[in-house]
């Protein structure tokens, strides 16, 4: 089963981290990805741009509404993700616990279902 690991952190605090310190942290993230790959559970990952680059849309009475930023104001923002393929939730929790991003913020683990129209 595939699991989405959603990485949440305070992007304002993250922007204050000196580049050298951020580079060290990113090295730990690359090592985590390598461990996922070696174990055969890695599917995909990507960082997200800051919430200042986001738009939220909805359609009200047939009219498109476009808003700057994310849907909700929160202390921590959704900043990136991993998709992993594990046998069960316990394994997904174990892999998420090894993610260095857990030391910065929270990781939401959510299984998802792949389906087709057939």
Features:
alpha+beta, two-stranded antiparallel sheet, 118 residues, Alpha-Beta Plaits, 3 helices
Q: What does this entry look like structurally?
A:
It is a single chain. The chain is an alpha+beta fold and 118 residues long. It has one domain: Alpha-Beta Plaits (2-Layer Sandwich), CATH 3.30.70. The chain has three helices and six strands. The strands form two sheets. Strands 2-5-1-6 form a four-stranded antiparallel beta sheet. The two termini are 20 Å apart. The model has no long low-confidence stretch (mean pLDDT 91).
Provide the fold topology.
Blueprint: E1 2-9, H1 11-15, H2 19-39, E2 42-47, E3 55-60, E4 63-68, E5 77-85, H3 89-97, E6 106-112
Antiparallel strand pairs: 1-5, 1-6, 2-5, 3-4
Summarize the structure in short.
The protein is an alpha+beta fold.
What's the helix-strand series? EHHEEEEHE
Largest sheet: 4 strands, antiparallel
Share of helix among residues?
Answer: 25-40%
User: Which CATH architecture is right?
Assistant: 2-Layer Sandwich
Here the CATH topology equals Alpha-Beta Plaits
Q: Looking at this structure, what is the CATH superfamily?
A: Dimeric alpha+beta barrel
Instruction: Give the overall shape, derived from the CA principal axes.
Output: flat
